[in-house]
Specification:
This protein is mostly helical. It contains two helices and two strands, in the order ααββ. The protein has a domain of 38 residues.
Length: 98
């Protein structure tokens, strides 16, 4: 087998095949520009869901800060099936022995 000239890492046939494959991939990507970046195609529903989650988190944070500033109690954020943004934490007190 003949040695390749210096600076040439691949034999010519391999090099031509790689370049042809790269050109084919480039053409495919040029035909579908929206597919160039993963996750670039978000559906409208996904966008709305994400916006709602961010809005909910901001409301929850504001409610928590307000409660801590205006109350001596302790509150936590937690998803609630009743729509509560924050929930009060009540200490569990042991009954005093008689």
């Amino acid at each position: 087998m003949a040695a390749n000239p210096p600076g040439q890492a691949f034999p010519n046939k391999t090099r031509v095949a790689i370049l042809a494959e790269l050109e084919k991939e480039r053409r495919r990507l040029m035909q579908n520009p929206s597919m160039n970046t993963p996750g670039a195609r978000l559906s409208l529903k996904d966008f709305r869901d994400n916006a709602e989650q961010q809005h909910f988190a901001a409301q929850q944070k504001a409610a928590l800060q307000h409660a801590h500033a205006h109350s001596s109690g302790f509150f936590i954020t937690q998803d609630s099936s009743f729509g509560n943004l924050i929930l009060p934490v009540l200490p569990r007190l042991e009954p005093e022995p008689s």
